[in-house]
Amino acid sequence: MLFQTLTFLTFFTIVFAIYWMLQRRWQNYFLLIASYVFYGWVEPWWLLLIALTSVVDFTSARFINKRPHQRNRFLLLSLITNISILATYKYFNFFSSSVTSLFNQFGFETDPFLLQVALPVGISFYTFQSASYVIDVYRGKVEARRKLPDYLLFVAFFPQLVAGPILRANDLLVQIEKPRTFDARIARSAVLLILWGLYKKLVIADNVALVANKIFALDTPSFPIVWAGAFAFGVQIYADFSAYTDIARGCSRLLGFELCQNFNHPYLADSPQAFWRRWHISLSTWFRDYVYFPLGGSHGSLLQQCRNLLITFLLSGLWHGAAWNFILWGAWHGALLVLWTLWNRAPASLRPEKIPWLLRVVLTFILIHVGWLMFREQSLSHLWAHLTQNPFTAPEADWRAALRFAFMAAFYALPLYLVHPLIDFWLHRKQADSTSQHYPGWKWTTVITAASALIYWGIIILRSPETADFIYFQF
């Protein structure tokens, strides 16, 4: 069920209307039912997996508290269950094909054994969300919950189920357990957030996708065409993924929940470290807290720190997809962070901060888009050809075409830099706290209403003739 469809609009309208008519004790039960309907809409058998993950993790956390002398066993039970389900449905075919190809290289001709099942949408997101709860209970940061329905809703909460943000128990579960009241002022900000998300998806991402898809469908695009495509894809994936987050946050606000911000102008980052503090923040912090820190983080020798960075980002690449280009993308970002770490240990006069901020932003932007080329191009042979092309052999006509493509992508991307800061200002600084004595009055209400109307008509007039699933649905 896609956010940008009439089906979802109808579904959410019914859920919203019934939800606020119910007493508080029934709201969570109703949201749980709605979330399972949402997730099982296309493939009902997916509900078995999310229910199994939820019940095993809920039970494991309970026993970690009740039997502390056996806590390691129950943590292991949870992790094995989560990893087994994820590995089977997301990675089995990839590893089977890779091992078979390796055997064939040595003369052992065989065909891979492949599972003929669809990848459950959002399995990586809800698996990480549920696993973080058990780990936090194990570490003593969170108390194990007693109400299974509340925990089932925590894992399956439909606005953020399919593509995040990945939330912790202290972010979402505590809100599920508290009473909620409808606030018209918060609702207005939620509508603005939803409309802005739809604009980013239907106008920016989907229009720029036409450029990126056209370029990457070519057999042998020249150097300037390839990099115009990489730039277009960078715009597309940012607008597409942040659009999902905005719509998820807006829908959650309408239901009385506040989700974390998942993006913070990532293309203004002046280093790879800064980029990952701004891009897909909930996933970055998940890998930091549950992979990088347990490996040792920045403690230990420089060699150990570099090792920890590389392992973390290789796993992050594998999380994004069961394909070698994603692993290569993760290795690229791990290498960037290692190089930046080494650069920061250079003599003071040679460190990155000595370079003007704007140049650091441009350099980071270019390096990130080299990574996006790896992310987008799934054929390793084509990727190698793209990366090793001679820019001086491209005909002049291709340079002119590349400039047109880049200009088109930049034109659609302008609202991300011009409008987005204003949206952030209105929503995050002026309307995040409904209990504040400085909550905006009728002037801000008028501004938000006018902005919502402008964005709505922008969608009607400028939306792409073609639309597709959100990119991160595949993860």
TrEMBL record:
This is MBOAT family protein. InterPro entries: Ac/AlaTfrase_AlgI/DltB, AlgI, MB_O-acyltransferase, MBOAT_fam. The chain crosses the membrane at residues 5-22, 28-53, 74-92, 112-136, 148-166, 186-203, 215-239, 322-343, 355-375, 401-423, 444-462. Belongs to the membrane-bound acyltransferase family. It comes from Phragmitibacter flavus. It is a multi-pass membrane protein. Pfam families: MBOAT. The keyword NAD does not apply. Keywords: Acyltransferase, Cell membrane, Membrane, Transferase, Transmembrane, Transmembrane helix.
